[in-house]
Design goal:
alpha/beta, 11 helices, 10 strands, 45% helix
């Protein structure tokens, strides 16, 4: 049986690929366990400085596997076991940038996985939908928290209430994704972006910045400013600050230390 999530590492970038192409990478408990486990491995690896997530074949992740949804509808699921799952916000706790390359169908919990990545690039023709209201479900897995922060409450309500499909270009216009890219260049450009982070950006700085952004969603501005000032003072004494300045003055690539595990 093939692995449901594949991983390769090159030039400081881990590429994670959802690997159920015959089902448009529909989400299963097995896939979730494998994906989050690999993210945990990436967090601990000094060889990984940035992470790219994509799907095999024509889809990114077309949502929950319909066979699982049918089992839920029939009451044939052990809910006690499912409560042992990591939260869908788990990628936010990974102290390295995670970039989604949305190559095709991205729906329901598949859209949640994309939105929980830090940065999203989408193929221009990729189809994205919340889908929940059209399955008799609610705004699941924290999407009601993340989507308004990306697109605003009005646009989030449009997408959640209607469950309509948007293509990659509209998704970029709405703020769901950072860029819409021609499909034949999507993975190449996403990997190039990730490699740039891996080569030129301090892993410690990126980890701190990622934590700041998500933590400050819950903080008032004075608290966020006070925390940033403390972190800034500490950064002045860190080796990466000296290396960042030296490499800029000397016009060379920086040599930042790997993130301590």
């Amino acid at each position: 049986m093939s692995e449901v999530v594949l991983m390769t590492v090159a030039e400081g970038v881990a590429l994670l690929t959802f690997n159920r192409p015959q089902r448009l990478n529909a989400w299963t408990d097995e896939m979730e366990h494998a994906y989050f486990g690999l993210l945990e491995d990436c967090a601990a690896s000094e060889q990984v400085r940035a992470i790219v997530v994509t799907g095999a074949g024509r889809g990114f992740c077309a949502g929950a596997d319909m066979r699982h949804l049918q089992a839920l509808s029939d009451g044939n699921v052990d809910h006690g076991r499912r409560r042992e799952r990591r939260p869908q916000t788990f990628p936010h706790s990974v102290p390295k940038p995670i970039i989604a390359a949305i190559n095709g169908a991205c729906a329901g919990i598949g859209l949640v996985q994309a939105l929980m990545c830090d940065i999203r690039f989408a193929a221009e023709g990729a189809k994205l939908t919340t889908a929940f209201a059209r399955r008799g479900l609610v705004a699941e897995h924290g999407i009601s928290w993340i989507l308004p922060r990306l697109a605003g409450p009005a646009r989030a309500l449009d997408l959640l209430l209607s469950g309509r499909v948007v293509l990659g270009q509209e998704a970029a216009e709405l703020g769901l994704v950072n860029r819409a890219i021609a499909p034949e260049r999507l993975l190449e450009e996403t990997l190039a972006y990730a490699r740039d982070l891996a080569v030129n950006c301090s892993p410690a700085s990126m980890a701190t910045i990622k934590h700041q952004v998500y933590a400050d969603c819950e903080h008032a501005l004075p608290d966020a400013l006070a925390a940033a000032d403390r972190l800034m003072e500490a950064s002045f004494a860190a080796p990466d600050f000296a290396e960042g300045v030296s490499s800029f003055v000397e016009r060379r690539e920086p040599s930042f230390a790997a993130l301590a595990s």
